[in-house]
């Protein structure tokens, strides 16, 4: 393998639905020297990570830690630790990530029921309540924000419904944690997971997770059965065993607890990154950070509308950090994305499933949820649309976005 | 969470069985700017990674890529993609990591048979051959080097036996890749996996993997069934479906192929690190690198013996990069490790299972398989042992190690 040179990526401005540009402080923290995984300095960092992520998740849960993998690893660890083969589960499905939850549950061998909304809408709480009553699920699972549709599912009151029905509640906040309010305790969520690569402004590869006492009890009971499996005095055919070693939250919790039982070799550099992401979030303050994302979403929406683009989805439930706009008739969406990348070094997002080829998605999250990056993106897009023959743009998108940012 | 300061770990010299200190170039490469996961520059980097790891694995396999997680994630992805529930599998078990392979297979629902050697020995090829004949396994799985016992299992000829028996062969080279020769093609291995945190001199969190054409066919056939699952026109109760989305190698291969089908968000920073690890290995040259590890193991062994310590395990099969020595009678092994860390900032390894409390493990791998680091470690250990009242040390360990390094 000749001619593989030193790493030297172009400096793209990543204004799609994620991954986005990491905060430079996060990347610098990740260049720190490694430590052994039972080094007292390392376990101190682990305890700090647990403490840092509690307020970010809106929780007092002692079990707040990291899964070593991307956001999807956190999702799978949560679902496989909550649901056993044969369990009935209910998925709140309003986009691609509801489909993902269903698929993972099916692979686990669970019986999956869904309560659905069309793409661009959310599921009303009373529809979820009716589905819980009808289905009697052991686990209810929902995305918070689903970047595929740009919708954020309202979650107030869902935890109470789940507890009344004896169901465990899982929430995927990959796309919202650190950008929109996540309130694990107030929601009554049993497991909440995320990733670094969106509003937390880090690279993909570490999945923050929080686990309620109720879910921890459930997992510890399953773990007890597994210990039998490991020592050989257990018939392993009963379906209670967690079907993964890597994603067995009970074993991972034993490593993050004072017991410090060995599991895998902790991904130290990613832990350093996750720690720095959280430090930056708490230094800025959650309220300030959410307000910055709200202003960003408002500015992006106003700018897109000002250039004559129609937004996708229900305004009332739009995520603050990602906005989808219809590709105007006669415009080649991929040609626009290419020009944005090649002429301006700006990445905007394509779309999936029923929206493939119909909308672009514009992210303004984490380190990129900043006024100048939104203005630059809108100005570039307006120029590219003109170059691609789109006539409806009035050339005032940047001004409209600036006014919206300033709340005018 | 107040008082969580900037990351500032002590500079420990990590001379245990891993993780070890990353090469500084690797950590610097990881601070490069992020890219979108379908950016042409990003997919170029992915293709380069594939090309870089082929010679390191000793393979021509097109399917050579990364799993996003620690070494253990690579192991689980391999096993869950090869074995289905109910399959009979054979594990070559000569230490802790054979037990891990067995445990993961059991969680998958496979029927596990083992062919065993006592800790400190390896399994003779004819014993494996007899076990294959007796068991008729669908998959044979073995560690290459097992750091728990410091033994390296000879693998020449095993692939032929597996092919004759219609079995797929999996080899875990976490502890050896980049330090001892790995010859996936010559061994006839179908999947080989590793991690960065040992001889590749990177941080834990990315798992290089190579997949033979035969294994890829097997996985693609399973994937076909899953696509039915995803589109809903398939009865998902037949046990052929891979029980994990995150570890479904078929889907990960679709992302690394020219199809570039979306799966999870690639852990870009870890990919940058894995790429730099491989560049450094190939710049040094495999033969030079293996010779450096061989000299390191020889020097470490000679030094330990010169201070009167008895080594654990069969000399003929000792890994070159990690050496275990019995803790002398009357010496508190943990007190020695603490003094090594506190007085010298050097980490040496403890042990597991039947060896817990009985041996220390000394790693000299990757960036740390260097003369001065071995001499420094031995000199420090000799001083600590004297301080702890160990009388048998003649004070010549460093000289003996230097002679052994130089082949005298």
Automatic annotation (TrEMBL), chains A, B:
Substrate binds at residue 361. It comes from the Bacteria. The keyword Transferase applies. Keywords: Aminotransferase, Pyridoxal phosphate, Transferase. The keyword Transferase applies. Gene3D superfamilies: Aspartate Aminotransferase, domain 1, Type I PLP-dependent aspartate aminotransferase-like (Major domain). InterPro entries: Aminotrans_V_dom, PyrdxlP-dep_Trfase, PyrdxlP-dep_Trfase_major, PyrdxlP-dep_Trfase_small, SP_NH2Trfase/AEP_transaminase. The modification N6-(pyridoxal phosphate)lysine is found at residue 198. Residues 41-228 form the Aminotransferase class V domain. Its EC number is 2.6.1.-. Its cofactor is pyridoxal 5'-phosphate. One of its GO terms (molecular function) is alanine-glyoxylate transaminase activity. GO terms for biological process: glycine biosynthetic process, by transamination of glyoxylate. Belongs to the class-V pyridoxal-phosphate-dependent aminotransferase family. PANTHER family: ALANINE--GLYOXYLATE AMINOTRANSFERASE, AMINOTRANSFERASE CLASS V. This is (S)-ureidoglycine-glyoxylate aminotransferase.
């Amino acid at each position: 393998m000749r001619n593989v040179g030193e790493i030297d990526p172009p400096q793209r401005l990543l204004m799609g639905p994620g991954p986005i540009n990491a905060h430079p402080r996060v990347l610098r923290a990740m260049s720190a020297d490694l430590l052994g995984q039972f080094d007292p300095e390392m376990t101190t960092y682990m305890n700090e990570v647990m403490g840092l992520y509690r307020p970010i998740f809106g929780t007092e849960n002692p079990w707040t830690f990291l899964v070593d993998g991307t956001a999807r690893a956190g999702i799978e660890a949560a679902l496989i630790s909550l649901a056993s083969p044969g369990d009935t589960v209910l998925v709140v499905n309003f986009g691609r990530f509801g489909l993902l939850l269903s698929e993972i549950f099916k692979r686990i061998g669970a019986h999956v029921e869904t309560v659905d909304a069309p793409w661009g809408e959310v599921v009303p709480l009373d529809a979820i309540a009716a589905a819980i009553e009808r289905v009697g699920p052991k686990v209810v699972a929902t995305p918070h924000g689903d970047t595929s549709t740009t919708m954020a599912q309202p979650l107030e009151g869902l935890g109470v419904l789940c507890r009344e029905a004896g169901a465990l509640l899982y929430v995927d906040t990959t796309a919202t944690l650190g950008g929109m309010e996540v309130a694990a305790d107030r929601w009554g969520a049993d497991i909440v997971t995320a990733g670094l690569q969106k509003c937390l402004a880090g690279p993909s590869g570490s999945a923050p997770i929080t686990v309620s006492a109720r879910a921890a009890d459930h997992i510890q009971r399953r773990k007890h059965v597994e210990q039998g499996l490991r020592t050989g005095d257990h018939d392993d055919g009963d379906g209670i065993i967690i079907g993964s070693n890597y994603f067995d939250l009970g074993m991972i919790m034993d490593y993050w607890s004072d017991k410090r039982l060995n599991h895998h070799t902790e991904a130290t550099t990613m832990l350093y990154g996750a720690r720095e992401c959280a430090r930056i979030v708490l230094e800025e303050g959650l309220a300030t950070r959410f307000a910055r994302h709200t202003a960003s979403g408002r500015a992006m929406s106003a700018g897109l509308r000002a250039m004559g683009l129609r937004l996708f989805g229900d305004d009332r439930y739009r995520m603050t950090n990602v906005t989808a706009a219809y590709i105007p008739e006669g415009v080649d969406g991929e040609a626009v994305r290419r020009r944005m990348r090649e002429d301006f070094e700006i990445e905007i997002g394509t779309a999936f499933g029923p929206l493939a080829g119909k909308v672009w998605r514009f992210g303004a999250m984490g380190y990129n949820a900043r006024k100048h990056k939104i203005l630059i993106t809108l100005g570039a897009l307006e120029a590219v649309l003109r170059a691609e023959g789109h006539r409806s743009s009035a050339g005032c998108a940047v001004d409209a976005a600036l006014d919206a940012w300033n709340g005018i």
